[in-house]
Amino acid sequence: MIVHKTESMSIMKSNLKKRIVSVFLACVCLMPAGGLQTAAVGIGEGDRYTVIPVLADGVRITYGLKAHNTTYVPIREFCKAVDPGARVHWNEETESATIKLDGLVIKLCIKNKYLTANGRYIYFESGIINIAGTTYVPIRELCRAFGLDPVWNAENKTISINTEKMQFIAPGDGYYDESDLYWLSRLIYSEAGNQPIDGKIGVGNVVLNRVADPSCPDTIYDVIFDSRYGVQFYVAETGAVYEEPNEESEAAAGICLEGYNTVGDSIYFFNPGISASNWITANRTYIAGIGDHLFYY
Question: How many domains would you assign to the chain?
């Protein structure tokens, strides 16, 4: 019998309540004797946190940890609640995991601040945390992979999701424009290859902000090679922009194209260690400093 994808998704959703009850019971059995609070010490030195029940269709599926206005959930348990058949592979050497569901593949490394879902990049501004071997990620961003909208209930202090309209994230190969990803990743690498990922994203944001600015060209390629008022990016003139980008620069480009932003409306950046850029500092508004770069609007 052939089961179409939409029919398969419908069947999965209709059985979800039965599935998540068994997953919840399994999670409770695996909790340490002192409760999840005991394990949560590893969030950060001196951090304050709150244990938050997470419900799916009215049934509690796991516990989240709220710290710094962000609620983290154990990614394995969350995925197993959606699909108990989810397959999880952990690579100890690279400290990375691959989680495969029917219609969704998630990959992450606990050293990174992002994961990929069906080849799409999802960014975690507050990062990923690991507590006693369990990987926790921000629930709001993780829900993007499932097409879910987590809702905070202030009265009950719980987070709820409704899976009735769950739709896995569309694949990256049909979402990203190949040329945009190609040139943006190369510009990021040549300008900020040695910077933290937040800074890499900031450089990509500057390019996209220029694309949106009426005074600048309308495409990523044209912004990078714009020379109407002098060379805008010297790596385009030196040829460094043609170098093969590293993995994190490619990720940063994808993250930018997903709409994440670390530098607001900035349309300028420079490294004060190698460039004075007196005109920018005298005429533009300072927005942020990330790594070696200062960003201005």
Answer: 2
Give percent above pLDDT 70 in the chain: 84
pLDDT at 143: 97
Question: 145 is in which domain, residue-wise?
Answer: 5-171
* 3-state helix vs strand vs coil in the chain, percent to 5: 40, 25, 35
Q: How far apart are CA 295 and CA 267, in angstroms?
A: 8
Same domain, 35 and 124: yes
What span, in angstroms and rounded, lies between the C-alpha atoms of 182 and 244?
A: 10
Write down which residue in 171, 196, 221 finishes a domain. Answer: 171
Measured between alpha carbons, how far is 5 from 170 in angstroms, rounded to an integer? Answer: 13
Q: Both tokens of residue 42?
A: 């590893």
Q: How far apart are CA 154 and CA 149, in angstroms?
A: 16
pLDDT of residue 275: 83
Instruction: Count other C-beta atoms under 10 Å from residue 11's C-beta.
Output: 12
For residues 126 and 223, membership in a common domain is answered with: no
Helices vs strands, H then E, count in the chain:
11, 15
pLDDT tens digits along 212-221? 999 999 999 9
- Does the global pTM surpass 0.70? yes
The reported pLDDT for the residue numbered 43 is 57
Q: Would you call 263 helix, strand, or coil by DSSP?
A: coil
